[in-house]
Amino acid sequence: MTIFTFNEQQSIGEVRSVETSRITIRVTDGQRLQKARVGRLVAIQATGDEWLIGIVERVWRHPVELPTLEEGEVAAGAAVIEQEENGVAISLVGTYRARDGQRHNTFSRAVFALPEINRPVYPIEEKSLEDFMGILSASSKADAATPLKVGTYTLDGKASAYIDGDKLFQRHAALLGSTGSGKSFAVASILEQTAQLPHANVVVLDLHGEYSSMTFASHYRIAGIGDIKAKKDGAIFLPFWLLTYDEMQSVFVDRSGNNAPNQAIALMDSVIELKRSAIDALGKPQLLEGFTVDTPVPYRLAELVSSLDFKNDEAIDTGETYASGPRKGQSKTEKGPMNGQLSRFLVRLKTKMNDRRYAFMYQAPVEYETYEALHDLAKKLLGTGSVKDGVNPGIKIIDFSEVPSDILPVVVGLVGRLIYQIQFWSSPGEDGDARHPIVIVCDEAHLYLPSGAASTGPLEKRALENYERIAKEGRKYGVGLMVVSQRPSDVSTTILSQCSNIISLRLANKTDQAVVKQLLPESLEGLMEVLPTLDVGEAVVVGDATLLPTRIKMAMPKHKPRSATIPFWTRWATPKADVDLVAAVENMRRQSRT
């Protein structure tokens, strides 16, 4: 039995024009026009058991210009001239069926048939709205073994809003919103529910330490200065030998200099020599079969510096001797091909080596020079395990807050590349489903995944290449992305265009709003007009993962992230406590809060 039982008095109006996904309604009664409110749902009967569902996009009332008459002239039919023209524009979003084969009360995003002209249009409200939202919740919940609840529908606060977790992560997602709109809370809420799954596999790139309060997750951080003398729990070092040749070039080579090509050639020659020597010393001759300059084999940075120093000072024996003078009888030499060409390059390299802020890369502990070091790092990044004491080891939050901003894109790109490459080279199994899927949550993505409009240097390009490849090919190998940003206009359009799910909280900037609209089908652009007026924690959810593209009040997490905006005026009125400025200055000097 259908949930819709309307009578003629409940109709808003009749279908006047029909396009592919939009229809226009003619409203003859001004009182009925009040039932049509932007954002509300309407129903149009297509057949007996099938109803088209639409969202009101626009409502208008235009005065009709009356004909000008000469004095004493009477217009034909003047008594029936309408004083105004009323209309409603509706975007079709799906089809409700009271019976679909053996199933009852189903909703589909597909529009199977367009309505006929003059069909009445009814608002979905009160009992009908409650029943319809209940069907949406039940359908979304039934489609997944473990449903993902994101909040409640704004149209009906009693109906829980569920989304398809498979489609959300497998087809990538973008979570966007201005500062203070509730992005971090939305991420925390999704992570909390993900942590309930015994084999969850998520890596969160936490740039500001916002998610350190998530006690249900495993916490790591890129090692800081305080970890040089004594490595603390959770510290991760990323030794320089993990860098690809292109990444090393972007960090070490000054491309604006005249000697940049010579520096790049010398770097490649030295790296190849040292990696071959390391493979021989390790007794792993099988590695030479597929060996490239990017093969991740550990070698010492001091050896690289020695090799480059030798090339920079190299003198070649000409085979001749001095016939006279103080050097009589001594062999004549000439400068080697790289002699004096690498001086600036070596200064840059040695400066970075001695900078304690980069210790996580250039001063890694001895255990990171072993062949098994990459195995251990892979277990930290991609490993999962059973939940113990409320902590799910598969939810891994990596704190990048102590990484210097100038090298941040390379470090973030390195982590993403390692995850993707290890997943790529894992055995797919006979049926292709042996890989354990993993999701990378890219918090503050605009800082290291810039758009083409932003000025991108060699460091940003390396990170972009890695994540754009994941966005385009990751689904095939079980690597998903969730891009989180407050400035979608500054994020790579290539990456955003691959996100089939958009969760957009309040966006005040018109440029950011325009970017989000471009990501959506033309029929849903009208839904995004509400972005600047959304409440804190309220979002428009559109994409493959949701049955109905609509406004949702996001659920509040139990573990709140440390991203709440500091109340300036209130804190100035009643300060909590005096700030220890001496300790702050010393932390700045030591470049560490510990």
Automatic annotation (TrEMBL):
It holds the Pfam family HerA_C. It comes from the Bacteria. Residues 318-337 are annotated as: Disordered. One of its GO terms (molecular function) is DNA binding. Residues 149-417 form the Helicase HerA central domain. Residues 430-542 form the Helicase HerA-like C-terminal domain. InterPro entries: HerA-like, HerA_C, HerA_central, P-loop_NTPase. Keywords: ATP-binding, DNA-binding, Helicase, Hydrolase, Isomerase, Nucleotide-binding. This is ATPase.
